[in-house]
Amino acid sequence: MKLLTKTSIYYLIFSLILFLIGGIFFYMQLRTILDEEFTEDLYKKKEHVEKYVNDSAKIPVSSDFIGDKITVVKADQKSTEQLKDTVIFDPVEKEYLQYRQLIFQLLIDNDLYSITVSKPLFESEDLIDGIITWFVITSIIMLVLLFFLTRLLSKKMWTPFYNTLDHLQGFDLSNNKSVDLSPVSTLEFKMMNDEIMKMTDKVQRDYQSLKEFTENASHEIQTPLSIIRSKIEVMIQAENLMPDQLSSLKDIYESTHRLSKLNQSLLLLAKIENRQFPETHIIDLKELLEIKLNQYDEMIGYKNISVERNFNNSPALKMNSYLADILFSNILINAIKHSSSSGKLIVELNNNSVIITNSGTSTEIPSEKLFQRFQKGDLSGDSHGLGLSIVKQICMTYGLKIEYLYKDGNHIVSVNF
């Protein structure tokens, strides 16, 4: 979820809660004010009735007080003043309606009368309903307007951030170009852009230094290794060598050869991690796998392995052709090397995956560590333990997913795309 969307949702929820709390408080205050007004009005009417009785010495009737409902009955005994809510049948509305009544007693011509002044409450309810309805409508309109206005303003305020994000997403170390960020007026974004430019410049310098160091170190190591190997080859061909000397020279030669392969593999890993293979081509996987299987036909025949090709589709991948060759070469060589003699190798090609299965004993390396560097089992021989690490790094570079599973005596490696 985008930051702007999340902020807008939080604002909307917070505003709804505030409006809800405000609406409840407003409703309670409105009811309190109206209740007090109604009660005060009833007491004013009581004063009018008392004044009318004192001035005229007559029994009051409703017609004497327009808009008031007054009931007068003789009282048998004295009672205290009473304020209460009740329901009275209204002949006009033809239903029972709520009223508030003030009951008090007056002495008229030496007779005690109980006088009831009534005021309908449904008028206040209608008033409250009307006010609350308009309050809700107004609140909804304000919420909608504020939501879109805030979203518009937030989008405008966050524009420098998204511009910076776009530049960072397009940043490529291999291009050797600095991040060119537009000047901004907001202090926080200006500080962020300054720090990003400093950071990317430093990363670029470190990357170039590491790249040069890796290439130079590899070249400087490879050259003396080649000289050592050539000298050893000459010495091995000498006729006056003792058997133990010849054995030692062979050990040195094999170690030098392994060291050379290790150096080349580490250099390749560094180049892949540094994205130094930018060129891409459309790779026909069916054609590539056929070529690889033909190249390793001698290895397959030597171990008497039967090969089954299940090419259900002929998908294509967009990647560097050199890395594609290394990717499937390493997987196939690993499968052949760890396959049991007279075993079976199955190469399956689907629309979105390549699955290579070979029979063999279980590996000593846990599956979660299989693609880590320098991981190898007893059957690896002269392996330097970087083949599957290179495979993993290539897959990560091109967004491929590689998985390993050992099931029913079979090693299963799948590359999903």
Written description of the protein model:
- The structure is a single chain.
- This protein has helices at 3-56, 122-157, 159-169, 187-236, 243-273, 285-295, 297-302, 321-337, 387-397, and strands at 69-74, 82-90, 95-108, 111-120, 281-284, 306-311, 316-319, 344-349, 353-359, 401-407, 410-416.
- It has nine helices and eleven strands.
- The strands form three sheets. It has a five-stranded mixed sheet with strand order 6-8-9-11-10, covered by helices on one side. Strands 1-4-3-2 form a four-stranded antiparallel sheet.
- It has 417 residues and is α+β, with helices and mostly antiparallel strands.
- Helix content is 54%, strand content 19%.
- A hairpin with a 3-residue loop joins strand 8 and strand 9.
- It is elongated and about 155 Å long.
- It folds into three domains: 3-153, Beta-Lactamase; 189-273, Helix Hairpins (Orthogonal Bundle), CATH 1.10.287; 281-416, Histidine kinase-like ATPase, C-terminal domain (Heat Shock Protein 90), CATH 3.30.565.
- Helix 5 runs parallel beside helix 9 and helix 8 runs antiparallel to helix 9.
